[in-house]
Model the fold of this input.
Amino acid sequence: QLQASGGGLVQAGGSLSLSCEASGRTYSRYNMGWFRQAPGKEREFVATINWDGGSTYYADSVKGRSTISRDNAKNTVYLQMNSLKPEDTAVYYCVATKSGIFRLRPDEYAYWGRGTQVTVSS
Done:
């Protein structure tokens, strides 16, 4: 089970730190990531990190403003988002996969957590 938290309401230019705590299994050997879905839009890839945290990949829309990291000892993955924009408003989902790294499609992730709402006001 993946449980995302840390969402909220923030003004444009602000920052948020999302966390995703895994339970029920050890995800230390899984590649993990974040997707988001805005109202009326399809789920969109945000970022992914490989099992040991040594490799990361970001969507162009968040590159340079976001950092994904993980702490396998805590079975937790993080997404630090800075310089937030109104277009970052979405429900953010934590995901995990045993497939190869840098998977960008939603159907490539077998494990999904409940999302956390991020709202950025202008």
